[in-house]
Amino acid sequence: MRASRVAANYGARVAVAESGRFGGTCVNVGCIPKKLFSYAAHFREDFHVARSFGWTVGEARFDWATLLANKDREIARLNGLYEGVLARAGAQILRGKATVVDAHTVELGGKRYGARHILVATGSWPQIPAIPGRELAITSNEAFHLASLPRRALVVGGGYIAVEFASIFQGLGVQTTLAYRGAQLLRGFDADLGQRLAEEMKKKGVAVRLQANPARLDPGIKVTYEDGAVEDTDLVMFATGRTPNTAGLGLEAAGVKLDAAGAVVVDAYSRSSVDSIHAIGDVTNRLNLTPVATAEGMALAKTLFRNEPTATDHDNVPTAVFSDPNVATVGLSEERARQKHGRVDIYKSAFRALKLTLGAHEERTFMKLVVDAATQRVLGAHMIGPDAGEIIQGIGIAVKLGATKAQFDATIGIHPTAAEEFVTMREKSP
Ligand SMILES: Cc1cc2nc3c(=O)[nH]c(=O)nc-3n(C[C@H](O)[C@H](O)[C@H](O)COP(=O)(O)OP(=O)(O)OC[C@H]3O[C@@H](n4cnc5c(N)ncnc54)[C@H](O)[C@@H]3O)c2cc1C
């Protein structure tokens, strides 16, 4: 979408092939509907908190069909909006599954199209491991269209999609288990985040089972884990990884190099091993986030059609996990910072958010700064708590600019907020 629109604005003649719905994964079965579901799930706690402020909200009931219908209506609006944006930019829209024939030819619906440049931005697809009974399980794709909510659910995985859906199901009243084969959730994130998120999710009723991996599923659904444990549930959702969408695209025959996972291998300018074929987004398996794909698309349009070779900077990309509670992070984890920089200073703070102090609420907000001991630059900022994504987006600017701890401290906080903690942490953590 973005690469096409910007390229067209720079004067290129553009055609876009789309086999699905406009907006891709993010709009249809990713970020947007996921966050809408996440809002829906959080109301359960909001009603509870409201009571501690004197509100009587009566009996709260949730209707899944209403949420689905409203979500679908909004997504359909976005589909139209996106298609309109492309059409207005002057891009020719081709509907159907495209394949690459050679360095300058694409085939779609039995017709061949010649192009000076071909951009592959076909995204990725969720995978279910090859265990007996795998056909009984769903992925996030189906979770967005369930006919009804199950009474019980098992979400398998420890990455952001798994923890988000476990929180969504639990918040919507489904008795939820989260099973992950590793020892800690959110691999690759700062270890404190994974560990504390598991604790917070347990407080909210999710049964978090670590080092637990389903080995087979039998109708019912009966789940048998590798260690022999058995669990009965009504829905199993795997969020155990996604594969780049390159199968059957014709890329290898056209000379495009793929890596072991099937991702298109590209250079810093998103160029593949064939000069005229580029790739961006999830299909390159670099940093699989929408704003990163968008940035890569804009950089490519500049490189090809404005004569300004532009590489996308993948450092210090802020990101959020819309679990309950939210998690957000920018920069290096403590572990990574120690590997890269040696000595680091750590600042941590955990507290109960003001909004939760009037009732018996257990949730703790957590913040952490990772600082290079030698230069005092803030290398990483990490948070668990309400609006973590909103807060870290701002902190991300400071980290990107290379701000030091002293500059964080020289910033006066906004009181009373949770965010002010990021500029008032004075005690180093041992
Ligand atoms: C459940 C979930 C939640 C997510 N939440 C977030 C989030 O909160 N924040 C965030 O930043 N990212 C999130 N992501 C990741 C984000 O959705 C992806 O990083 C992003 O969509 C990648 O964009 P893309 O353009 O590379 O691919 P996609 O958005 O997948 O687009 C690829 C498009 O190509 C089309 N296509 C594929 N093959 C062909 C073909 N042969 N011919 C024609 N068309 C084809 C597909 O129909 C699709 O429309 C989430 C992903 C999932 C699955």
Written overview of the protein:
The protein has 430 residues and is α/β, with parallel strands linked by helices. The chain is 31% helix and 22% strand. It has 11 helices and 21 strands. The protein has helices spanning 2-9, 24-29, 31-52, 64-89, 140-143, 160-171, 191-203, 290-305, 334-341, 388-400, 405-410; strands spanning 15-18, 92-95, 98-102, 105-108, 111-114, 118-120, 124-126, 152-156, 175-180, 207-210, 214-218, 222-225, 230-232, 236-238, 242-244, 277-279, 319-321, 327-331, 344-351, 365-372, 378-384. The chain has a 5-stranded antiparallel beta sheet, with helices on both faces. A 4-stranded parallel beta sheet has the order 10-9-8-14, with helices on one face. Helix 3 (31-52) crosses helix 4 (64-89). The model has no long low-confidence stretch (mean pLDDT 97). Flavin-adenine dinucleotide is lined by residues 17-20, 24-26, 30-31, 34, 97-98, 121-123, 140, 161, 245, 249, 281-283, 288-291, 293.
Query: How much strand?
Result: 15-25%
Radius of gyration: 23 Å
Overall 3D shape = globular
Bound molecules: flavin-adenine dinucleotide
- Structural class of the secondary structure composition? alpha/beta
For the record, give the distance between the C-alpha atoms at the N and C termini, rounded to a whole number.
48 Å
The profile of the biggest β sheet is: 5 strands, antiparallel
Q: So how many helices?
A: 11
Mean pLDDT: 97
Number of strands: 21
Uncertain parts: none
Strand order, biggest sheet?
A: 17-18-21-20-19
Give helix % range: 25-40%
